[in-house]
């Protein structure tokens, strides 16, 4: 363990973390497993989309000349030679005076130049109607069905032409694209089953404290429920990670060390909460003193004081044979959550290879009954509710770092700069949006 005696600024602590973190090596993933991940290859289109001319309507595939001038009064009467369902092969050839009944998405049969929607016809009811679906190419019984078309159609009307979406050889998605649902849809549409992406980081979240009980169990004297490991596992997932929540570990250094060492196998990043301040049972500090320095030449966890509130005590370093980054966050629920937002989230997003690693922030006018007070020399992060329409932010709860109910009401963090000890209502402040 090392302990910096200097006070670190929020920005320097974050910069120190990010300098030690590299994006994860790309792997090939199934499409749905790649959701939210960053593509590391340019994807070109192997075959045009659509792959063939096809109908955008249910109707009749015909020749333009055969329906030219058709009206309600003087409909074009065409012989229906068969059905063309979507997915069918063996297409009938549409000759002069003929029509093939065609379904949406079905290939335009040879000879046909346009599609008249069924609404522009009598639906084949006019004489010897073809109402049953038949396999493409198979002549209807007697082939004597007729359809009356009462409107003309221009060449290519209601036809989605081959390559009108993308052409073979086009760039479908550029490397660096974040794969959201439409991008995953496009990959599937061009026939890609897997893609090369940077994987989601595996984040192990572990809380410490002998007072902690798993929710759902009953509380004994002096016990509280472990909320940090749940909040932070959820936050890690929200940031894009695969979160592994490890139940609370008792305040025993050997147990904690053994637990962390066991978890390293599945961790790209380890997050602990609690046990980092200056109390008698600061188990994370105690446990990581030997793991860090002995096992990792040049590595180790540095415990430091930050010029922020909440979240003053923090630890950061690398651990184990793979030099896995570990962030040791303070135990108070609000402190650990704010610390996660400020330091862990950007670390996760850096591991993912995302450019956009920070939360969106804006400026807003403080809406409050009275002035806010903030400690000198520390950047304060208060919880707030932002009103986009009014451009205001209203604090919820006080500065207490145990106030989880107020945190659950908040949608933003209000940032009071290091040098400001008092902020009057109406003043403008930076607001970090938590969503
Ligand atoms: P510590 O830094 O371990 O002394 O914890 C500071 C405060 O946060 C104490 O009041 C703890 O009981 C509380 N705390 C620590 N870890 C958790 C947790 N996982 N869930 C809820 N409260 C916690
Ligand atoms: Mg503790």
Task: Pick out its properties.
Molybdopterin biosynthesis moeA protein, domain 3; Molybdenum Cofactor Biosythetic Enzyme, Chain A; seven-stranded mixed sheet; alpha/beta; 19% helix; binds magnesium ion
General description of the model:
With about 425 residues, the chain is α/β, with parallel strands linked by helices. It is about 20% helix and about 30% strand. Strand 25 and strand 26 form a beta hairpin. The longest helix has 19 residues, at about 335-350. It is elongated and about 95 Å long. It starts with a strand and ends with a strand. The structure holds adenosine monophosphate (AMP) and magnesium ion. Magnesium ion binds near residues 209 and 331.
Number of domains: 4
Q: So, CATH architecture of the largest domain?
A: 3-Layer(aba) Sandwich
Q: Which ligands appear in the coordinates?
A: adenosine monophosphate, magnesium ion
Number of strands: 29
Poorly predicted spans: 127-144
* Helical run tally: 8
- Give the end-to-end Cα distance, rounded to a whole number of Å: 35 Å
The CATH homologous superfamily of the largest domain is termed MoaB/Mog-like domain
The CATH topology name of the largest domain reads: Molybdenum Cofactor Biosythetic Enzyme, Chain A
Indicate the overall shape. Answer: elongated
Give the C-level CATH assignment of the largest domain. Answer: Alpha Beta
- For the CA atoms, what is the radius of gyration? 33 Å
Q: Overall mean pLDDT score?
A: 92
Oligomer: single chain
